[in-house]
Design goal:
Elements: H1 2-43, H2 49-67, H3 69-96
Helix pairs in contact: 1-2
Length: 101
């Protein structure tokens, strides 16, 4: 039992490290996206403040949507696991035949 919980702790640490790396990479990509947008807008002529604000507001909403992706992936994985379990139970019920009343 001790070996199982040590392995479980190790997996949780690896998962946490992977999540931190993914979050860091995403933040670097977001910073790069903002810099590229600012660079492009700075080089353009006759840009209005409302246009620039709209672009950055859209990028910001996109970034907030990206923050929800890990939770969405986790929920989809849970649903897939539940679906597989239900199929196994259904197959086992079909193999055992009809249940008497």
């Amino acid at each position: 039992m001790r070996r199982h919980f040590k392995a479980l702790a190790g997996w949780r640490i690896k998962l946490s490290d992977a999540e931190a790396k993914a979050f860091g990479a995403m933040e670097v990509a977001v910073i790069a996206l903002f810099i590229i947008a600012l660079w492009q807008l700075a080089g353009a002529e006759n840009q209005q403040a409302g246009y620039i604000y709209a672009i950055f507001a859209y990028i910001w909403k996109f970034v907030f949507a990206l923050d929800q992706v890990p939770a969405l992936v986790q929920q989809l994985a849970k649903l897939k696991d539940i679906g597989e379990r239900l199929q196994r139970v259904d197959r086992a019920d079909n193999l055992s035949g009809p249940t008497p009343l």
